[in-house]
Every structure is written in structure tokens, then in C-alpha cells.
Amino acid sequence: MAALKILPPAGEISCGKAATGAIRIATVIATPLPEFAEGVRNFEGGYARTGENGAEIIEEPFKKPYIVLKDNISYLTKNKWFQ
């Protein structure tokens, strides 16, 4: 029983997790997405806006090149070249 008294009430745990989640969501929303309509080399990977200026050819390592026709958010792997 003594061990149970050490733990905080369940409500405090939930509030802490909710606050942490809210901070993470706010950080993601406040961070602008990179745009590479002009092309990029050595991208570190992550989410990026593609097709923001119309059709765009995306070249990723170990994949066939593909075309994005309209504005889109894509997860792009590290070290790629966009044309």
C-alpha cells in the first residue's frame, strides 16, 4: 500500500500528458513546411510541400521519379534531388 501513495493521482498524469501533447502540436503548426519548386540538393528529409507551383517531378533514392500534379504535403526521405 505504501507504494500506491507515492504515485500521483491519475488526473495529474493525464493533465501532464495533455499539456505535453498540446505543446508538440503547437510546435508542428508553427513550423513552416519547406518548399522546393526551384529544386534542392541534400535535403535532410521530412515533410515538405510539393507541387506548390504546379506539376513537379520528384526524384527519390531507390524509387522511380514521379510527378506531383497539384499542391501536396509529402514525406520525403533524406538526400534526394528535386527538379
Describe the structure.
The chain contains two helices and five strands, in the order H-H-E-E-E-E-E. By secondary structure, the protein is α+β, with helices and mostly antiparallel strands. The strands form two sheets. The protein has a three-stranded antiparallel β-sheet with strand order 3-2-5, with no helix packed on it.
Count up the helices: 2
Number of strands: 5
Order of helices and strands: HHEEEEE
Largest sheet: 3 strands, antiparallel
Name the beta content range.
15-25%
| Global morphology | elongated
Identify the strand order in the major beta sheet. Answer: 3-2-5
Q: How much helix is in the residues? A: 25-40%
Cα-based radius of gyration, to the nearest Å: 21 Å
pLDDT averaged residue by residue: 77
Q: Can you tell me the residue ranges where pLDDT is under 50 for at least 5 consecutive residues?
A: none
